[in-house]
């Protein structure tokens, strides 16, 4: 499997450093591509178009699974009216009070705080 990093996905702009195509995500999760598409439709996984291709930030898919709290956070963000691009921006916006970015905090003990903040966006 090859991790892709298109030119429009610079880590310097606060976004993900490495992107995966849907077939790469399917390979990593050991599921068919149509299952990955269903996960995206169900807001269990986030994908956005980069260079004309749907891509997923690689750090959201680790150890053959999607980050544990990601589906809940994505549901909260979509309920607050965020589209996928806005949700991506929110997840990768640096937040000194976490510290770091919400996407980074999801894989640490700060996932509950990330969910609380996402929920507060709806009010």
Describe the structure.
With 123 residues, the chain is an alpha+beta fold. It has one domain. It is 41% helix and 12% strand. The strands form two sheets. The protein has a three-stranded antiparallel beta sheet with strand order 1-3-2. A two-stranded antiparallel ribbon has the order 4-5. Helix 1 packs across helix 2 (33-41). The longest helix has 10 residues, at 70-79. The radius of gyration is 14 Å and the shape is globular. The model is unreliable at 1-12 (pLDDT under 50).
List keywords for this structure.
123 residues, alpha+beta, two-stranded antiparallel ribbon, 6 helices, disordered N terminus, Rv2175c_C
- How many β-strand runs? 5
The total domain count is 1
Spatial sequence of strands, sheet with the most strands: 1-3-2
| Oligomer status | single chain
Secondary-structure content class? alpha+beta
Largest sheet: 3 strands, antiparallel
Report how far apart the termini are.
42 Å
- Morphology: globular
Helical segment count? 6
What's the helix-strand series? EHHEEEEHHHH
Average pLDDT confidence is 87
Helix content: 40-55%
Uncertain residue ranges: 1-12
- Beta-sheet strand percentage? 5-15%
Query: If you compute it from the alpha carbons, what radius of gyration comes out, rounded to the nearest whole angstrom?
Result: 14 Å
